[in-house]
Design brief:
The chain has 305 residues and is mainly beta. It has three helices and 22 strands.
Length: 305
């Protein structure tokens, strides 16, 4: 790997080199490296670009990394990945995509991920998006995530847009069955003229299912963001939707949370707040020796952490 590829890998997957354990690295629409393990098998799809990740029942303490690197201008990459998480497993999945666009044409990656989380399994999924490059071409990332959690399953989804992504349309859908639980945390930063749109739909269909959606974002300069998280309860269940955004400069943020109860014992709550950084927070940090810019950056880092 060259220096650009190593930097992207570090940003999106926290890796400094080829990871241990199961992994699949995709670069410019082609496979760059792959490794399966005794408990986690990765194989190519036969009908379309992408992979199937099969995690054996009972697999615990293992991880799989599937980062994507794009360094060509004008490349439009679409990939379909499916994750089968076996019954009783407990694993970490690290995804993410970074685009280094050196030219004048748009570079785009659309990742469609399907998760089948079997009975009693636990998953932590981390997906980070990042853009850079000296070119004027756009850096576009459009992820779609579809999740089904069977009885007693649990999943944490951490979806992060670090910086440098000019346009994103994010779609997340989840169906939660009896005693299943999902936590979705989304953190976005936009700047310049960047645009971000996030739409989520979580359906709580099983008795005692639960869900939490937490959205935190910062919109700077002339960027714009739209959030549309929806949650629907079809059984005795609990759900909470929370959207918090910091708006700066001439940015625009819209948050439109929606909850819908289709059962008398569905307990659903939503909250949304948009505002600027409180002046007293900046003054307090400046009194500790930080400049105004340093104080602002410290607050934003803490907010998005």
């Amino acid at each position: 790997m060259n220096a650009v590829e190593r930097r992207i890998l570090k940003e999106v997957a926290g890796l400094h080199d080829i990871p241990r354990g199961a992994y699949n690295i995709r670069k410019n629409g082609e496979g760059m490296g792959r490794e399966s393990t005794a408990n986690i098998e990765i194989r190519s799809k036969e009908d379309k670009p992408g992979i199937d990740v099969i995690i054996k029942p009972g697999t615990k303490g293992e991880s799989v990394h599937i980062p994507v690197i794009i360094t060509e201008t004008g490349l439009e990459d679409v990939v379909y990945n499916t994750f089968y998480v076996g019954e009783g497993s407990d694993v970490l999945i690290v995804a993410g995509c970074g685009i280094h666009n050196p030219g004048a044409r748009k570079s785009q990656h659309d990742g469609i991920h399907d998760f089948i989380i079997c009975r009693g399994a636990r998953v932590r999924y981390v997906e980070k998006h990042y853009g850079e490059g000296e070119g004027t071409g756009g850096r576009v990332l459009n992820p779609k995530t579809v999740v089904e959690i069977e009885e007693g399953g649990y999943a944490e989804f951490e979806l992060v847009q670090i910086k440098g992504v000019d346009s994103t349309k994010r779609r997340t859908e989840a169906v939660i069955h009896k005693n299943g639980h999902i936590v979705i945390t989304e953190r976005l930063l936009t700047h310049g003229n960047q645009q971000a749109e996030s739409e989520m739909l979580v359906e709580l269909v099983g008795e005692n299912s639960a869900a939490q959606i937490v959205s935190r974002s910062v919109a700077q300069e002339e960027s714009s963001q739209v959030f549309y998280p929806r949650m629907a309860g079809f059984a005795k269940c609990r759900g909470h939707v929370q959207c918090d955004a910091i708006i700066m400069d001439r940015a625009v943020v819209r948050a439109i949370p929606e909850i819908a109860a289709h059962h008398a014992d569905a307990q659903l709550v939503h909250e949304a707040a948009i505002g600027k950084i409180a002046g007293e927070q900046i003054i307090k940090l400046m009194s500790l020796g930080l400049t105004e810019k340093e104080a602002e950056e410290t607050i934003l880092q803490g907010f998005l952490k």
